[in-house]
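Slide 14.
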Amino acid sequence: NGSGDVWHHLKTRQVVLKNVESRLNLRRTARIIGNKMEEYAKPYGFFEAPYCTAEGTVDLAQQKDTNLKIYVRSEKGMEYSFLGKLLTLSDLDCDLAITGKDLKIRPRKPVGMFDGTLDGTLDVKLIEDASYQAKLELKECDFGKLMKTFFGNEEVKGQVSASANLDGRFSDLRSMNGWGELTVIDGVLYPIPIFGTFSEVLNNLVPELGYSQANKARSVYEIKKGEVDMTKIDVYSAAFALIGNGTYDMVDDKVDMNMRVNMRGIMGVALFPISKLFEYRGTGSLNDTKWEPKSF
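Slide 15: predicted structure.
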């Protein structure tokens, strides 16, 4: 159902909406207004008809005179495709503003994602090769669900919080630039693709060491042309600390990382004189990273 006023000016090919409220399927409703509006609504796969209000003008001819404000609320949420991955967002309460070819998405409160929350802003240039600017913040999300979505790994556990400032084009991962940081609490290293074989290295130092739960892992990173430069990586457990840095090329799937193992507790005291031996370099792909000693 829905209510409000809709005028379609055939000469100027503009649609004017005033005091429009609805609980209609967004994609089907958009189709009635015109092809441009249907394109705007395409990425939003709602699980139920959301509550929406709309006010403004849609320019079906050239798009330059479009000035439309939309409010959307949906507890069940939707699926949204971002960078080729299908994300599930719940408890949506946000404003959308379309001015000419610019779309701005502004949540009124954090939305649910990966059993945690996602907050931030997303600006999209509505052109043939659409570009984006995103400022995002994840809080207390399920690290396993995130890793399954992006890397297909189903064994990772832990809780992740992260921030990211990104820009680029949706069609080209190499166009991505940005920066941010990531923190994982109470995770286990060995199921994480990049650390899988590194756990074997730790087990060679001390049996079962590679299966230890990390109390905290943190990385600060920059992204330039689709390559992630992890300027600092810190992983801490009761038994060891990993200190490192490196790069990951998201387009070519190439890893180049350096890690140093510092033992903690009694083992740390015993092995301190030879701690420089525990430096390793990892190369290869994300799911098949080969770790070798840097010096002996």
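Speaker note: The first helix runs from residue 26 to 33.
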